[in-house]
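Protocol step 4 of 5: obtain the predicted structure for the target chain.
Materials: sequence only (see below). No template structures provided, no constraints applied. The aim of this step is simply to have a reference model before the mutagenesis design in step 5. Sequence pasted as it appears in the construct record:
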Amino acid sequence: MSPLLRFILIVLAGIGLGALLGWTNSCSSGACPLTSTWWRGALYGGVLGVLLAASFRS
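Step 4 output (structure tokens):
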């Protein structure tokens, strides 16, 4: 598997997991920064996915 494809797959997995977390654990008050909306969860998940994928690059 090419390094670029692995990088993209890890980032997409982070986005998907973050969106799922934001969608299932929605905070009704909006005070929860990670789970207040699904797209914000996806944003945080994508950032964490980028950081994780960048740590595997050699």
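Step 4 remarks: The mean pLDDT is 85. The two ends are 14 Å apart (CA to CA).
Proceed to step 5.
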